[in-house]
Amino acid sequence: MTTLLKEEEDRARAASSRSRIRWVGKDAQGCPLKRRDRSGATCRRTKDRLLPTGRPSHSCNPEGVTESIGRPLIFVCINGRYDLHLPKRVCNTCHYEWTPDWGDLIRSGYWPASVNGDTLYSTDVFKSFEDLKTVAPGLSRQAFLQMLERRTKHYGRTGKIHGDVFQRSFLEYMACQYECHKMMCEEPFSCPACTPKMLAVSVDGNRKQYRFRLSQRIDEPLFKGPFIMEDSAVTDFVDKVRTNTPGKGTCGTSQWSAARETARKASRLDEEGLEVAAHSTKCEIVWSGRNLEGAGSTAGEEVEMVNSFLSRCAITTKYMTISARNDMLTVHAMGWNRRKQENLHVVLAKRYVKTITMLEVETQKMKDTCEELGCPEDKVQQWVNDVRDWATNDNTSGDNQSLQRSIEQLFLGLCQKKACLYRQTGKRRKRLREEKTKLFAAIRQYNTGQPPETEIQEDEVERRLSAEQQTTDSLIWPWEVQSDESVSILAQKKVFDAYMGKRRLVEERAIIVREMRQHCLYLRSQDDKIRMQMQHVSCGGHSDMTQEGRDGLASLLKKILADVDTHIQHLSSAYSLAIGPNAPQWPDDSVENHDQDSDISDDSEEDPDEDITHTLPPP
């Protein structure tokens, strides 16, 4: 009797428990959710889900196929983590069994994390991560994976995503994409505007790309040499440099800590951009990019544009191993180059319009300067040559040579230190005051016994040293002025600067047109290479590939060819619109003699109104 009562109570308790459960909806997977009244906790009714893949066509009896669950796996996509199963299909007629292999998974847009295939990633999540890293280089993988995990939780699922496995799989996927792009004739590390003739090479360093020695693991990088050279090649180059240069970092009378090739400390290496502020006037005339023939508007700091992008990558790469850091920086560089190639025609068109506007201003400025100083047009070239001769000759003479050199070095040193980013520290301000006192003491010593017209004006020196009144005007010392000059060197220098400003813009206009032309020729060359590759594939090339692989390569080549043709039309329209009515009509004939570029000679005198648009090629 007691036993029967106990069983009856258990059945009633179970029935009461079932009556307190109510279904409230379904999650993102379609599984119904239930909530208990007492605790309010939500749980999921368990249901096995299959990985969506392509299914094979079976000829026996398509309707007589049984589909069941296979082995479990972890699937990660842009919506987070899913715990799924591989599908398993069995034909009831011939008992043929099918489970997706690596080829089926990759064709379905999945990337296996290991040879076992316990984790699969959607290629879409890799593409999203690559795009985000290109737009925001400082984005870490932890932040990206936290976003995926929050999306997992938002849709009612649970589970973590392993960071190291994700990064390794992402880099492997990008390395395979790089090899595929090479088969499609793409060159991610070539500049269309600089091929085949590059105007200049800018050399700079990036001390922010250091790495913490947290991991001693040594792995082979996946990218060997396309962006970061191998250690053996770097060692050979450094040895060659050290045999030819002492590495002391000097330029005339100026001393540069940043130019020391053997420097190991990062302090006081922020001086690359101080050329005007801390070089002598003669050094500026001879070596400044503004005064170099053929340089155009090249500033020499073009590498800083890349460094400003890659420096943000150091937030995350400094914690990586050597191989992972090498691969990740290569991926960042490829993303930067791809974005540059996509927008290159827009940038060149804007540069051309801006250069034409600046050229008109500089032409008027030179005309006004010559009228103000009384320099006739036929005397401009003579004045320019006089300034160049003055800059290349050493006019220092007399018994005060050592004092003159001391004044020059103290002045340049003060200009350099005042432009330093860290001059606000108390120790540096004290040193600046001490060196400034020495400079003016040396100036007073020099002025002793000098006639008034050859004295150094202390007020002028003080004005030039003022940090709030930095100026680009040259400071010419009295001993640098030749006594037999009929015209002041200062007046000739003003005409020289105006002439060089106009001259560089004339060159810049020709350089931009040449880069437009080379851009068109580069894309035409890519078009020809892709067509040749398509012909090679259609004739049975790539015998190491399967027929399915060759068909896939042919499809990708057709897509790339269509993209290149569309890009050619876009850049032709942009360049024609920028150049204006003098733009060529883009005839549809073959490009020949494309190596005959409009070279910028040192002694050519180009009229700013000269039509140079004939150098553009057809699209």
Automatic annotation (TrEMBL):
Positions in coiled-coil regions: none
Classification via Pfam families: CxC3, KDZ
Cited InterPro entries? CxC3-like (IPR040564), KDZ (IPR040521)
Composition-biased stretches, type Acidic residues, lie in: 598-610
TM region(s), chain numbering? none
Name the segments for region: Disordered: 582-619
> Per the database record, which ranges form the CxC3 like cysteine cluster domain?
57-152
Name by which UniProt lists this protein: CxC3 like cysteine cluster domain-containing protein
